[in-house]
Fold this sequence. Notes:
Strand content: 5-15%
Number of helices: 2
Largest sheet: 3 strands, antiparallel
Radius of gyration: 17 Å
Low-confidence stretches: 11-19
Amino acid sequence: MRRALLVAAAVSTALLLTGCAPTISLRPAPEATSVGCAGVVVRLPGAIGGAARRDTDAQGTAAWGTRSGRP
């Protein structure tokens, strides 16, 4: 019983923390799955001009910073 409560608490905490960093929704380019594109994407910087890299939901894409009025 105690283990089940700990697991439930851990899952709840993970879900709450995930909500703090929304994913940017983008459309992948036609060649987003190509080896050449993957080679570029894995070398993209974690920050540009002080703007941190954000998570995106499309392969072969990247985003940095925030939009005005959005996190």
